[in-house]
Specification:
The complex is a heterodimer of chains A (172) and B (494).
Chain A (H helix, E strand, L loop, with lengths): L21 E2 L4 H26 L4 H28 L1 E4 L3 E6 L3 E8 L3 E7 L2 H5 L2 E8 L7 E7 H17 L4
Antiparallel strand pairs in A: 1-2, 2-3, 3-4, 5-6, 6-7
Helix pairs in contact in A: 1-2
Chain B lengths: L15 H26 L7 H26 L1 E5 L2 E6 L5 E6 L3 E8 L1 H6 L1 E8 L7 E6 H22 L2 H8 L8 E4 L2 H9 L3 H22 L1 H11 L6 H26 L4 E4 L3 E6 L4 E7 L3 E8 L1 H5 L3 E10 L4 E12 L2 H8 L9 E4 L3 H22 L5 H22 L1 E4 L3 E6 L4 E7 L3 E9 H6 L1 E8 L3 E8 H18 L1
Antiparallel strand pairs in B: 1-2, 2-3, 4-5, 4-10, 5-6, 7-8, 8-9, 9-10, 11-12, 11-17, 12-13, 14-15, 15-16, 16-17, 18-19, 19-20
Classes of the chains: A alpha+beta (172), B alpha+beta (494).
Amino acid sequence: MDFSNKQIDIEQLPKTEQISYTQVEEKYKKVLYGKYLLLLGIPTVIATVVSFFAEEDRIVLLAVAFIFFAILCMMLFLTGRIYEFIGYAVRENDICMRSGLFFKNYVVVPFNRIQHITVEQGVLARAFGLASLKVYSAAGNYNDFVLNGITKERADEMKQFILEQIKTDDIH
Amino acid sequence: MIYIDFTQENRLPLSAVFFLIIVSTKTAIKELWGVLLAVFVFKSDSLNTFWKLVIAFLVFFLFAAIHGILMYRNFRYAVKGDELIVKKGAFRKTTLSIPLHKIQNISNTQGFWQQVLGITTLSVDTAGSSSNELEIYLDVETSDAFKKFLLQTKNESLASELDESEIKRDETFQPQQVLKNYQYDTRQLLLAAISRNHLRGTSIMLALFFSFFNQLGDSYQRYLVEYTWSFVPKNASIIYWLTIIITILLLSVLLNFVHTCLKYYDLNVNLYDDKITYNAGLIKNIQQVINLNKIQVIEQTANIFEKMLKTSSLRVHQFLVLNEQAKTEVAFFLPGFLQSKELTEGIYPEIADEEFSEVHSKKNFFLRKLYSFAGVPTAIFVGLAFYDIRFAFLAIPVLAIATFAAWFCYRKSRAEIGNKYIRVYAGALGDKVSTLKIANIQSIKFRQSVFQERTQTASLIISTRWRSLNIPFLDEKTARQVFDYLLFRLECEG
């Protein structure tokens, strides 16, 4: 069941498969480590400490701490792979990115569909001089395009570039 | 035809005062429920329940009356230049000014009380992000005149921005012709009412029944026990319970039937060149005008009843911005509508001679659906089987039903892709066909899980302004081709 269409030769279309994605900054790995340590490490420590003082349900608390610790270990182990897969690319008419670990997502937003762009800096990212670029299309329910782990300068550059592209296009 | 100068500040008709008082009662209940609570909690020997009720009623009525009259006194509307200016508010006054070119839809609604008083609600939807929905209560004649005036002024202000050749074309402009008109005759209305989903009605009925029973039980527990058991025979047979269940079912069918008949009484859908008008309802009359280019997705669904009766429902989703967040809503919904396909083709006229090419989901989708339908129940039953072997037998019907549902899901999951339109087919026991314009797509996502990677399949998620549509488990190569093709279409034509 190959997809075909009479008027356009499918083979001639620009292929998303051949895009060479640029990797995000090396420092972003550290941000990811920090994020997981904060998100999963703190509950682990709290559950462990409380279990020493608790009179009842000590085993349950220890089990919870162990589960958090196991997830933390797994995430720290997988951070390298998560980092490696994140990538972005700018083409003539659209902006692309890929991300994900168990579900690999490739998102493409054409320039003529972009509504607005924001550059944000979290606490952790700011410590490493990183920023995230968010591109909003008019797609109703949720925001797909969030590119983390690029430097503030690069984010501003990209924002400026996209804004210029939008100006020349008609917005839908 | 009455003449009113809308460029001057106008007040609402006097009959609107009564309606405003009724509206204010709702506000009163929202604001003053604390007072009601205080009156009942406050223990006093000199006041019995009757007087408490009287006091509460008086407080509410006073508040509603003052609120309503103040709302009436403060409400003024006028069209100045190319802006609609509305002053409103009871205790907190606000002035709204809406540029006329921002107005998207103007619709009339007439509820029960409004029909009695002879007024309609004129609601103005704007594309702006910060303004609220605006509602003006006018009598019928003024409402029509004002609507006409607004549209006229809007066109004039738009025309003045265009060059002269455009205006010349406007002068020769004919009043719009109705391309097609759809109505429910009696037979069609009955068909629509019968084919509704009665399960929902039943669940509402049951919920009402049980909550009523619980409330009674809380207050009159002692009496209730005696009362209930006097009705239930000591050794109630299965026939007794069956009768009760059938009665509830019949009641819910009746409820649904009445609801549908009231809602779609005198339905009138007119299709114009660039818009659709919708008009229906007996107790609450709704009129709507929808621009064709605001329509995002058209869904044609058919549940089991409708498939048996060979009809289908049509849901038209439009896009509206109200408040800060994008609000999406069903523009209108036509149940048991015989000409669903025809109306879809009327809205999207090019679809009739569109060449579609099909893409199907791969067989892995069946397995995935089977796991998600049957996984958890089967695991539970197998776990329980360690205690009692009979639970293992319960897993068999669950598995059978899940297999059937998954098989139908897999069979129906496909998509048709053309030059300007996409059709996505889905559904398990019923049918669901979503039609959308490629130009309305906002962004596209190519998604592949670890398992999909192994079996070389992928899903496509197409975001429109309304919602995302999913074409699951395509062959990876096909998915990539569709992905590239859609992007090409988006970027070429814009």
